[in-house]
Design goal:
Mean pLDDT: 89
Largest sheet: 2 strands, antiparallel
Distance between the termini: 28 Å
Strand order of the largest sheet: 1-2
Radius of gyration: 20 Å
Helix content: 55-70%
Number of helices: 13
Oligomer: single chain
Shape: globular
Number of strands: 2
Order of helices and strands: HHHHHHHHHHEHHEH
């Protein structure tokens, strides 16, 4: 195992890929439109999850094991979908208005119980602008985190299980960002109000169901595996991966990660069309050699 992170001597590949794709396929520009329909999904997901939480509350605490099963089999997919909506709202891909996009993100964030939508928007945009820069990219594990987990498979399994906790430790290390704002306050107030309402109407069983769903959605779960799929690699020449499998149907095409980094101004529904229009550029991998050698993947 390497004793430290690999330090590449080249910039991230996506800006160069974007220019090359647009030169070869200018029709891709037509895909750069917002998708207001995402706002409807942002309303449906919290409604759906709250309905299940209410049902769990009616069953009572003796069925805690059923909450775990339903959260893993259903709730994790729903909450992960909410994260993808927050992601698109962060890129202002729902409405033209930044304010409306922030409202969409806050609403979609409700079933996650913890107010993370606005803070995510702050460090995620840094991830796009400074991919691979340790002091500015929260998608890179902290050095202490990598040393703690090491190379053992069971440590990595535990790391993915506890990924929500590890993720919370990364933003404080980032430089030149302000996490707290009026919008963060609004996000927090809405989250607390929702949590109290769920506790009142659904009881602890309903609240625990949502907690399980949120934890599984970014942890040891098929949808949680995307945190590894997107940027973790054993190949120094490869920085970004795409996934084209069936989970995209319930995860709003979040697997199309090369396409998203190449075109962060394209909404989730049009990402498969990027691949269809420019198949010679789009594959599961994004070799950095494309930028260095000027060749197609």
């Amino acid at each position: 195992m390497e004793s430290d992170f690999f330090q590449a001597d080249f910039d991230q590949p996506h800006p160069e890929r974007t220019r090359a794709i647009l030169k070869a396929h200018p029709e891709v520009r037509k895909l750069m439109v917002r998708n207001p329909f995402t706002a409807l999904i942002a309303l449906l997901v919290p409604t759906f999850q709250t309905g299940i939480a209410y049902g769990m509350g009616q069953l009572g605490g003796t069925y805690w094991w059923l909450s775990l099963i339903v959260a893993y089999a259903v709730g994790a997919f729903a909450n992960h979908c909410a994260y993808v909506i927050i992601h698109d709202a962060t890129h202002n891909l729902v409405f033209r208005s930044r304010i409306l996009n922030k409202f969409v993100a806050i609403i979609a964030d409700l079933p996650n119980l913890f107010p993370g939508a606005i803070a995510f928007g702050v460090y995620h945009l840094k991830h796009h602008a400074h991919q691979g820069e340790y002091a500015l990219d929260a998608d890179i594990p902290s050095q202490w985190e990598a040393k703690l987990i090491g190379s053992k498979w069971f440590n990595k399994t535990l790391w993915l299980l506890l990924f929500p906790i590890f993720q919370l430790t990364r933003p404080p290390r980032l430089k030149a960002i302000t996490m707290w704002s009026g919008w963060t306050t609004a996000n927090t107030v809405c989250a607390i109000a929702y949590d109290l309402l769920v506790l009142y109407f659904c009881g602890w069983p309903g609240l625990l169901y949502l907690l399980y769903s949120s934890f599984f959605s970014i942890g040891l779960h098929p949808v949680g595996a995307r945190w590894i799929q997107e940027h973790y690699t054993l190949d120094p020449d490869q920085e970004t991966f795409s996934y084209y499998g069936p989970i995209n149907l319930v995860a709003l095409n979040v697997g199309y990660h090369n396409e998203h980094h190449d075109f962060p101004s394209i909404a989730w529904n049009n990402l498969p069309r990027v691949r269809a229009l420019a198949p010679e550029f789009c594959s599961k991998t994004c070799p950095a050699r494309f930028c260095r050698d000027g060749v197609m993947p």
